[in-house]
User: Fold Integral membrane protein TerC from Triparma retinervis.
Amino acid sequence: MFQSVDSSGASEETGKGGRAYKDAIKQTTATVIAAASFAACLGYFEGYNAFVEFSAGYLVEQSLSVDNLFVFLLLFEYFKVPLPFQNKILNWGIIGAMVMRAVMIAAGAVALKDFHGILLVFAGILVFSSGKILTEFLDGEGGEEEEDLSNNWIVKFSNSIFKSTDKYDGDNFFTVNSLGERLATPMLLCMIAVEISDVVFAVDSIPAVFGVTENPLIVFSSNIFAIAGLRSLYTILSEAVKDLKYLEPSVALVLGFIGAKMIAEYFGVCIPTSTSLGVVAAFLGAGVGASVLFGAEEDEAGGVTGGAEGGGGGGGIEGGEGRAKEGSVGDKRT
Assistant:
């Protein structure tokens, strides 16, 4: 198994009261303000409809990015990436995501121009993903157990690309062993896994934003602004993950709604973008609200149960961590 270096010194700054957490909130706020400013500029120069389309697309992409970060948390834990090194992987992951999204959006725009029926393919992907997520949530799959990533296809593929070691050499992607062999460190394997997982998630996110608008500029810019805030959002999410139990099903409802919208519009039933924006915001707001309201009640009930069962093992904490690991990497939606 992978061997991590000691990162306990960083833990003092990463809690909800720590400096890193406060900085992450400021940076996330700044990226949201930047996105809002860009939306205002679009509205001024391109009209109200462009403003609403960007706002809806950004909201969808931001919610899906949050879902993507759950997978990053699992990968960092599996590869035992020390806290000080995680930003390097996130930075490279963000750069790779921007390049890959640009390529996929360009391909999607060309496909829509030459073959409008591709909308039905996109819609099918979203409806299937929505149903899969909701089914797994209702069945409670993965809710109480840690996922074994050693059998995950993305992790296996990452491990098979390079001859590797389980030891870290600072934040280097490669190291040299005593025999003079150049080996990949867990840093590189984790980065490859992060990049591949983003491609998998893009299979949902690109069709989702094309369901809001077919304007390539708005599709690309909404993706870029959502991705730009991933690093700071990750810091926040790593602390708040236990509090967002109902976010994933709300994202599933968003995907299902957009898929249904694409099907309806293909057959001539037009749903205003402003209506779509309101529905998306309502679903996501309900998910966050339910997590805050019902999550607190469940935590209190769990604490009482844990105390009654007595003694000593910290089961309440383990249960919270198990809930934070719901879903599977690479097979979470598609």
